[in-house]
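Q: I have two molecules that I believe assemble together. Could you output structure tokens for the complex as a whole instead of separate predictions?
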Amino acid sequence: DGGITQSPKYLFRKEGQNVTLSCEQNLNHDAMYWYRQDPGQGLRLIYYSQIVNDFQKGDIAEGYSVSREKKESFPLTVTSAQKNPTAFYLCASSLVSLPRYEQYFGPGTRLTVT
Amino acid sequence: GDSVTQMEGPVTLSEEAFLTINCTYTATGYPSLFWYVQYPGEGLQLLLKATKADDKGSNKGFEATYRKETTSFHLEKGSVQVSDSAVYFCALSDQDTGNQFYFGTGTSLTVIP
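A: Yes, here they are, computed for all two components at once.
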């Protein structure tokens, strides 16, 4: 089955530690995205990538970093510089980055930092 | 800039009731419009979409019509079921703003038997 996998589903870290969230897709999609979801705030874009080895900052990129070395993979690192990292993180992909193409979402990773 | 506004929740309905969730948008260009559904602890799933004015998206008994004159994309279902309980997100994608998606804040729906 084609889809997007995110691992792990739940992640716990101590304050001051960097943590990397995994996102893999086997849909052969070119574009991939990372969103952060907080209660009552909808989804906010962190980073996106339209092609391998290229990515752009979204609305809330501070304290996060990404890489896109392979088409299938778009890992997100939450660094210690992110002031409030506890949230639900969603990875998405789309065939191409054009308006009429929907984004497909992974199941999400819930990160808790204490 | 582009934005999506959807009705505040939570919404609680009895089974077989009629559902409307309002969504209005602001866009600089000619956006595509989407409704996504999120079940507890899961990612978002595409429910339906419309890519141009007057298009009607439909899926699983849900419908929404792209109304350019009122900049709206309201979600409707004639008879809701308990299994429809979820959070619903309206979204747009606009070529004029780099094809990014803009999501509403979500509307929580609970259907009681």
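A: One point stands out. Chain A touches chain B at residues 4, 6, 33, 40-43, 45, 48, 58, 90, 92, 97-108, 110 (CB under 8 Å).
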